[in-house]
Amino acid sequence: GALLVSERIDREELCGALSPCSLSFEIVVENPLELYSGTVEIQDINDNDPVFPSSQAKLEISESVAAGARFPLESAQDPDVGINSLQTYQLSANPHFVLDVQTRVDGSKYAELVLEKELDREEQREVRLVLTALDGGSPPRSAHVQIHIDVLDANDNAPVFNQSTYKASVRENTPSGTLVAKISAYDLDDGPNGDIIYSFSSHTPTKVRELFGLDSTTGELRVKGQLDYEETKLYEIYLQAKDKGVVPGVAHCKVLVEVVDVNDNAPEVTVTSVYSPVPEDAAPGTVVALLSVTDLDSHDNGSPPLSAVKQILVQVSDVNDNAPKSSQDSYDVYVLENNVPGIPILNVSATDPDLGRNAHLFYTLFQGDPTVGHLFSINQENGTLYLLTSLDHEDQVEFSMMVQVQDSGSPPLATNVSVSVFVTDLNDNAPVVLYPQPNATATYPDVVAPGTPAGHMVTKVVAVDADAGYNAWISYTLLQATDPSLFAVGLHSGEIFTARQLREDDAPQHTLVILLKDHGEPVLSASATVSISVAEMIKEVLTDLTDMTPTSDPKKHVTFYLILAVILVSAAFFISMLSVGIFKCYKWRQSKEMFNNSRSTLYRTPGPFHHIDAVRGGYMAPSLYQQVYLTTDSRQSDLTKKPFTSSPLGSRQSTMRNGEPGLYHQIVGTANRLPAPAE
């Protein structure tokens, strides 16, 4: 219930010279509902200096003026009231004049200069004085004015008013030009010394001069501006009469003008809202507003009576009874890998039919996987989902998260929207040769016997591509060979076979350079170097291998390791062939089911596949083993790795096609390879 000041109060701006200065207010108390009126009185502080209308005053006084003559001085104005208003005047020390401070009816002060010792023009032609105005503050504020008095020769008689005070009353709606009073003065002198001019005294306030006009010849005081009873009820006007002598005589009087109230203010209706706006779930009988009526005029029942009409606008406020609603329950977003960090990838759109804060929505991202929080971010205000880092299709294909849309009501309501982000593949990985190992310290050739017919598979280049789809489909081309007519390479299998029957005059050693290219854009490639020896017996091969080994001791147990390698490779080949036969039947049936189901998987990446481990035949280190799958049209020795593939952004086509060899990497194990001898 504390009443506080909400902004700086300037008493002079609110009330001017009116004292006391007060502000009225009304207080509404609920339970029970009551209305109280109150008034705050604005107390004055001494924050204004007295101010003279001008910095210098000039008087002309005849030397014949007798002692005791009075000369009104310009009054200083101080907008403060009470003790802080103008309280007194002080005059600088001099032998001729003293100061007489007078008090008006309203309590304001004005000063008159009283001649104490007669002037002598021959002795002193001019007198200079300083008049100081002081208010009653602590410390007091002051103002100064220079008084310059010219001593003139005598004009024996001054004008005299027939009365010192005039009284008049005028209605506040009196039109401009209406006669208020007529003042009259006489002068016993003749000629110019007896001609009288009427004017406002020098200390008449500017506001009075704006509201009233005085005829300088006739002395008629008329209404000049718009009077307002509610602003000022009484005006105290000081006038003077001056003759036209060389040293004019001056007389002073005052006119008291009472302003009569007129019913010129209609009642004012004030609406004090208690329970407005009314919430949409308010019960019948709820109090909406209280009314109070004021009229600035005095008394009541004016004639003719004035009235007022007040329209009350009852606003219905919103209640948070609607949860946010998204245009979609879930979103599938497709993003190309190697994206630029910080890009927006989705705008989650939601609406709330409520108003104001109840319709102000905030978007929050929830991730099932904690690492997702480092990859994605959402703008809380507009629902824009940003990708904070660059994604890699080969690391992770799909991200799932939940976006919560919540309003700002109390209590808040929320809706959850699921978002799935699929990373589509780019051709950013070149083929990698697994066999023959490109960085091996020693190269061991494959062996083919002389007279081998055309079409015999000698060895196979094994490579993988970390990309997916056509970006991972590898083609093999014979780039360079010792005898280009002797060997050929399978375009998509990497199998190296004889192009014709070997002859006795063929070179015993052959080096082939195989170019591997994927089908991405741009095309990425790699190369593999294969060494092939033409030998009749295994002994010749062993001799060649011994010559090629980097060891310095040819008598170590080479035979033991060779026999062990042949046994291991043969066992691996047998197991592989058995697995291929079983899995071909199973894969043929599964591929048919996948093709039929792919039509119903729009906007989704393929699900997980059943898989078997790759044959570990001694060609690869354990870190290079892959999970592999069998295609329905594989050749006898083919094992194929089938990567996850995503359809392009915005595509509504399934990315899997049954029996499509271009979508697979091939990892092949052969039974005729010999491992390198161990140290």
TrEMBL record:
Task: Tell me where in this chain the Cadherin domain is found.
Answer: 1-52, 53-161, 162-269, 300-326, 327-433, 440-552
List cellular component terms (GO): plasma membrane
Topology in membrane: Single-pass type I membrane protein
The entry's keywords: Calcium, Cell adhesion, Cell membrane, Glycoprotein, Membrane, Repeat, Signal, Transmembrane, Transmembrane helix
- What CDD domains does the record tag this protein with? Cadherin_repeat
For bias type Polar residues, the affected ranges are 643-657
Molecular function terms from GO = calcium ion binding
What is the name listed in the Swiss-Prot or TrEMBL entry for this protein? PCDGK protein
Q: Which organism is it from?
A: Oreotrochilus melanogaster
The upper taxonomy is: Eukaryota, Metazoa, Chordata, Craniata, Vertebrata
Name of the coding gene: Pcdhgc3
